[in-house]
């Protein structure tokens, strides 16, 4: 079985803290899903990084968002916009 529509969010000005906390939460989510006989389709899992253009440029300079989040050895894809509760977020 699959769980559908789960959302995690985290806010901080510290990129390393965001990376650490979100990756920890993703690991906990995957463990919980496995314990409850549910699966997480990592290929459909996406992340949306929201911030001002200067801050997003700073992230790119610090190594980029391409490998910011992962679930075990799988990298979570980064998207530039998402539909959430009927509204487009970018």
Give structural notes.
The protein has 90 residues and is an alpha+beta fold. It has one domain (15-89). The protein has two helices and six strands. It has helices at residues 15-35, 53-61, and strands at residues 46-48, 70-71, 74-75, 77-79, 82-84, 87-89. It has a two-stranded parallel ribbon with strand order 1-4. A two-stranded antiparallel ribbon has the order 2-3. Strand 2 (70-71) and strand 3 form a beta hairpin. The longest helix has 21 residues, at 15-35. It is globular, with a radius of gyration of 14 Å. The model has no long low-confidence stretch (mean pLDDT 80).
What are the defining features of this structure?
90 residues, alpha+beta, two-stranded parallel ribbon, two-stranded antiparallel ribbon, 18% strand
């Amino acid at each position: 079985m699959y769980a559908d529509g789960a959302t995690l969010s985290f806010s901080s000005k510290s990129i390393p803290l965001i990376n650490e906390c979100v990756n920890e939460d993703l690991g906990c989510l995957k463990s919980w899903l496995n314990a409850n006989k549910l699966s997480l389709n990592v290929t459909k899992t996406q992340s949306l990084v929201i911030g001002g253009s200067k801050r997003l440029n700073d992230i790119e300079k610090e190594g980029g968002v391409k490998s910011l989040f992962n679930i075990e050895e799988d990298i979570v894809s980064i998207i530039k916009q998402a539909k959430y509760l009927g509204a487009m977020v970018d």
